[in-house]
Every structure is written in C-alpha cells, then in structure tokens.
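Q: Is it fine to ask for two folds in a single conversation?
A: Yes, each is treated on its own. Send the first.
Q: Here.
A: Result:
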Amino acid sequence: MKKEKCFAHELIGEHIEITNSTNKTQLGLKGQVIDETKNTIKIKTNQGEKTILKSSIDFKIKSKEIIIKGNTIKKRTEDRLKG
C-alpha cells in the first residue's frame, strides 16, 4: 500500500477506513465520505454520521488502496483540487 503526499481528488463518495488516529476510538472506523470541509470529513458509518478532524487521522481509500495523511489534505476541497 502506498502513501500519498497530497490527494488532489474529490473525497465525497469514497469509502474509507481510518488506519491511524490520535483518538484511539476512531481506529478502524469505516464508512463513506458524505461531506468535507477545510478541517473535517463527515463519514456515514453503520453507527451513524461521524465528523472527524483531518489533522488527527490517516485513512485508507478502499477503491484506490492508498493511505492518506489527514494533515496533507487540510485545505478546502476546491483549493486542493486546483493544485
């Protein structure tokens, strides 16, 4: 599995799994990204919707088999997509 430096793609709709977190209760959390802000992502899980700080997590995008460090995407979506 490779690590991405910066992910210049849309996250909404992607299925993710949290692989590392400063909040250990979030480890292994899986779901579909339903919203994203500059500092957070909102995931729809089996336990409901969860809003998570990007700066506190690393996560895996299941369809692409890559791991992303949340700190590297701490931008508004449109700014990240512009490059």
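Q: Second one now.
A: Result:
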Amino acid sequence: MAIEPGDVVILKSGGQPMTVVSVEDRDEIDCVWMGDDGHLCRESIPAAALIGVPSEEDEDEDEDEHEHKEEDEAEDEETGEDDEEEKSKDRGKTKRRVA
C-alpha cells in the first residue's frame, strides 16, 4: 500500500494516529497530529517507520466481503454443493484412459 496525502498512519512501534500531509519522496513522509498538550505537531518521518491505519470505509468494505462470503457458504450448504465434490466431479471428467 502506497502512503498518500490524507492517509492516517501510525508508527510501527505504536503511538497516536497521524495524518499524512505530503510525500516528498517515498522515503520521507510529512505528518501532522495533535500533541498531548493540544498543539499541532508536524514532522517528517521515514516511510519505513510507518504503517497505514484502515479507514472506516475500508473496514466497512471488509465487513461486507465477510458477510457475502458467509452468505455464499450458507447457500452452498443449503443446495448441497461442496467445493470438494465439484473438484472430484471435474477430475472425473478430465481423466482419460490411455491404452
């Protein structure tokens, strides 16, 4: 995942979330955050020290994908379809006896 302005990141070692304000080059990322005293802090941080924090939209998409997967699995159970059965059927179709 490439870090872009507007992304929320944290230090890999922990800490509070920071907002990326600019990416001068891929090695240094300019971030801002609110300090404990309420002042706005700004620092250029090595990209290797940062990881992205999933946004609420990303988490919602992950939940939607998980729900769809569970629905598909439940549907397979209802119809009696099973991936292993399908694979064995497919294998049987492709086997040919060579004399």
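Q: Anything structural to flag on that second result?
A: Two points. The mean pLDDT is 79. Helices lie at 56-79, 83-94.
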